[in-house]
Amino acid sequence: MKTLLIAPLVLLLSACAGDYKFNTNLDGEAIDEYFKASDVAVFEGNTHPTVPYEIIGLVEGETCQESANDAPASISEARTLARRAAADKGANAILIKKCMVFEEQGQACFSRAVCVGQAIKTPEADK
């Protein structure tokens, strides 16, 4: 009885062993580009870095609802795009000055969200 169980078990386990390769279409640089906004700390409202910082420049992020069936423009997406713009300038933090949503139709958008801020460089951004 044991012999009858061992033979199929060995056959089953040997079928799982093989030289399998994992192929992906993901590129390491593309992943770094996608996640670079997460390296930028966000300061909003009355919060500011507790360490001295250098202002690099003004950045903005903007999203647009192009058709009635699209998702509405969101402040969170606009903020993420502003963080990405700050990262492109070499900043490690951003001071969000203002975020707004425009609901009226115009300029090819049903709704629009915009965030404006200052890209800053700190010795180490507070997170």
From TrEMBL:
It holds the Pfam family RcsF. The keyword Signal applies. GO terms for biological process: intracellular signal transduction. This is Lipoprotein. The keyword Ribonucleoprotein does not apply. It comes from the Bacteria. Keywords: Signal. PROSITE patterns: PROKAR_LIPOPROTEIN. Residues 1-17 form the signal peptide.
